[in-house]
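User: Can you predict the 3D structure for this chain?
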Amino acid sequence: MNQLFFENIELLPFCQDFFNNIPDLFVFGKDTDCKFTMMNNCLLSRLGKSSESEVLGKDEFDFFQPNLAELFQKEDREVFETKQNIYNRTWSVPNGQGGLDWYISNKYVLVDRQGIIKGLIGVMRGITKASVILEPYADFSKVLTFVQEHYSRQIEVSELASMMNLSVSQFERCFKALLKITPLKFINKCRIDNACEKLLSSNDTIAVIALECGFYDHSYFSKTFKKVMNMSPRQYRINYLK
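Assistant: Here is the predicted structure, written as structure tokens:
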């Protein structure tokens, strides 16, 4: 970058216009207390808001379920503590229709001229909706959609690889390089994310939820859930329903 060229240019109007006029781009700013300092039109619309004044000074706990809000802020604190940007992480967010939408997320640390951290900028983009724009994610969008639609049954990695016309080893290598997670871990993440949603939105027993989410062994479900969420399904339901 030519720093001399940009040194005396007012970039704020450009940033506001740029962020507000790209479809399927969710942009937000936060201070070090994880409070929103800006939010673009696309994200405001996603939250059912019409003006930034409705979100400034608030945080995720005002708009999302506590379990998801905690995960968002955990990642924010990682940015502040490590002073490192976070690139291309996958997130699943309830879409309000009983399912989950998948996003690619980047977070960028903001520092002042003295090098003191002041906050961060977050940018999220839907994997499937913006797949035409988000190359090379476009090729994998059908795989991600397939997993989300069929997580309740057994899914073999070879089945996913054949959808891409790749060998299992090629598919696993490409998948992990792109999404920073193995296919098997992604499938389990999808199942656990859906289980979290069902634990809070239904009165079904844990055994029923385990079966609905593709876990045919109740004890294995509990073990996997605890490994991912650091608590048992029962503890999770009790904690967040409070």
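The radius of gyration is 20 Å. Confidence is low (pLDDT under 50) at residues 130-134.
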